[in-house]
Amino acid sequence: MLDLGQSPVRESRWPVNGFFSSLRRRGLCAAARPRAVRGDVGWIDIVERTQNVTRRTDVKPIGAALYLIPVRTRVPLKFGKEILHSVVCARACVRVRDHAGRTAVGWGETPLSAQWVWPSMLAESDRRAELQGFCQTLARAWADLAVSGHPVEIGHAFQYDVLPDLLMQANAERAAAAGAEVERMPWLAALVCCSAFDIALHDAYG
């Protein structure tokens, strides 16, 4: 059992300041941020100091798949100036393996509502296509993720260490393809795309 008597957990708080600072440096969120407490040791330091501790309940993602399912809404839904009549749902499948070699599969799903996660003057079809493409990028990233632990730890590591860079890369590639500055996919859109895989991870854990 891990002895937390001298653990930095007792010396720090959740690193909201550091997390949002990281996003702002990448241009993924505005300067405004929630009120946060300060601590000398951030959460990422805690993860690095305890990552050698192996628990028999730890799992590791070893595969991921994505299914894009078109859905017609029963009634129109209005988001700002836009009205939604149909949506594509991202259905994710994540396979995990524990230290005993046992495997399990979990499923997660979220609607890719461009009207909500990416309000813009851009055509809805263009935003929808970008969201679907980004979900495909996430499927490959989740399958290649070299992190083991509890789903909360794995999801935190992905959201903190992987997702911001993937979003920045996707926006840079769109700008390069257009040959000019383009409207960037927002952080909220990236989080919603990622949520399907995070749900699937927790479902596989059981």
Offer a concise description of the structure:
By secondary structure, the protein is α+β, with helices and mostly antiparallel strands. The protein contains six helices and three strands.
Structure report:
The chain is of the alpha+beta class. It has six helices and three strands. It has helices at 16-25, 43-50, 114-117, 124-143, 151-178, 187-205; strands at residues 59-79, 82-98, 103-111. Strands 1-2-3 form a three-stranded antiparallel sheet. Helix 4 (124-143) crosses helix 5 and helix 5 packs antiparallel against helix 6 (187-205). The model is unreliable at 1-17 and 28-52 (pLDDT under 50).
Percent of residues in helices comes to 40-55%
Q: How does the major sheet shape up?
A: 3 strands, antiparallel
Number of strands: 3
Average pLDDT number: 79
Rg from alpha-carbon coordinates: 19 Å
Unreliable parts: 1-17, 28-52
Strands across the major sheet, in which order? 1-2-3
Calculate the terminal CA-CA distance, rounded to whole Å: 22 Å
User: Count the helices. How many?
Assistant: 6
Estimated share of beta-strand residues: 15-25%
Based on helices, strands and strand pairing, what is the structural class? alpha+beta
Taken in chain order, the helices and strands follow as: HHEEEHHHH
Coarse morphology: globular
